[in-house]
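Hi R.,

Here's the chain you asked about this morning:
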Amino acid sequence: MLSGTIRSANARYLLPRVLAVVIIAFAAAIVTRANDRAASAAALWGVSDTPVVLAGRDIPAGGFIKAAAVTLQAVPVGLLPPPDAIHDLPPSSRSSTGLVAGEILRSACTDPSAASVITSLLSYDHLALSVLAD
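And the predicted structure, written out as tokens:
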């Protein structure tokens, strides 16, 4: 009679035990998945190895880009800097478009060979000529 009551007690508690094991396994899978997502997000937003030039203040179109107006800063990898991002500022560059503070400088937005504001605002398929007037 004693063995019958032990068997019935084991059978009675079998379902809660199995259910507890299933819940613990499910919770462990959720925690593992969240940990993997956090690790991949941390890798995505890590800091890149190559710093880029950022506008430190607003620079108008055609204005000189001086060293005091820009900063060299490493950006998060998740920002995906454009392929033509500038990594060092060439001397006497002019802005061909208006730049906002914090914007990544690109070679398409700067013209290191521009001698004046007008030539810096022209696209590459246009030519500026000066005519001497009396």
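Strands lie at 52-55, 64-65, 70-73, 93-95, 110-111.

Let me know if you need anything else.
M.
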